[in-house]
Amino acid sequence: MEQQNGKSILGVISDVLLIILIIVAIAITVMTFTSKSSETGVGNILGFTPFSVQTSSMEPTIDQGDLIISKEVKQEEAVDGKSLKVGDVITFSTVMSDNAGNTIRGYNTHRIVDVTLNDDGTVFSYATKGDAIGTEDSTPVTPYEIIAKQIGASADIVNGQPVNIKKGVTIMGLGKALDFLQTQLGFMVCVIIPLALFFIWQVYKLIAMFMSAKSENISDDIKRKAIEEYLAQQEAAKKAAADAEENK
Fold first, then answer.
1. DSSP annotation string for 106-133
2. Span 64-91, mean pLDDT?
3. How far apart (Å, rounded) are the C-alpha atoms in residues 206 and 198?
4. To the nearest 10°, the Cα dihedral for 28, 32, 34, 39?
5. Is the peptide bond before 60 cis (omega within 30 degrees of 0)?
């Protein structure tokens, strides 16, 4: 009984892990396809995007390597200013330098500390800064550079500094795992290979069940034939005894 319970628990665990792997594979696939059709080039799932924080500029609110969940911001929403306000944490496209010193376009996650409006009330630009940095970013963010807003994040800005901070949806340390999963090696090691092994294991269990059922059928046939032979022998013995009695 204990052995059967152990096998049952292992079966449940393997099924749960398989479901998780399938969900991860689907999520990464969806993000890959949606990034190609998105205005910003960033993938999302039903409008929600996970971002891996690459620097320490938002510490201690958000640590380097954390994963934040953000809601996509459409360009028209960023322009009208109704979806964004001072204190929100946004991810936006910006120009930066890579390790080789080349100028590239990347993504930055900072907090809105001020908003500049046009004469018609629409947004001209957003001033941003990291919580760990004392001064505003040198280049204001235009509405067309904004990609997403972190869910649940807010703060009051007093003298340019955030107070009454609400952290928002953040998963500690999971950003590094997402970075690895989004590489070819990571996707292969963490998703493709485990899925292949699970598939092989399921095929093995199916074959084992088939062989076991076939073995039981063979065993039943053997028992039936043995019983039939025994009954035939008994019948033959009775007939021989009856014949012997008649010949006396």
1. EEEEEEEEEEEE-TTS-EEEEEEE-TT-
2. 90
3. 12
4. 130
5. yes
Q: From CA 173, how far away is CA 71, in angstroms rounded?
A: 20
Please give the Cα distance from 22 to 15 (Å, whole number). Answer: 11
CB 182 within 8 A of CB 28: yes
What burial class does residue 115 get, using C-beta atoms within 10 Å of its C-beta: 0-12 exposed, 13-18 middle, 19+ buried?
A: middle
166 touches 153 (CB < 8 A):
yes
pLDDT tens, position by position, 183-240: 778 778 777 777 787 778 777 777 777 777 666 655 666 666 766 765 666 565 556 5
Residues 116, 124: Cα–Cα separation, whole Å: 5
Say which amino acid occupies 147. I
Beta bridge partners, 218, equal: none
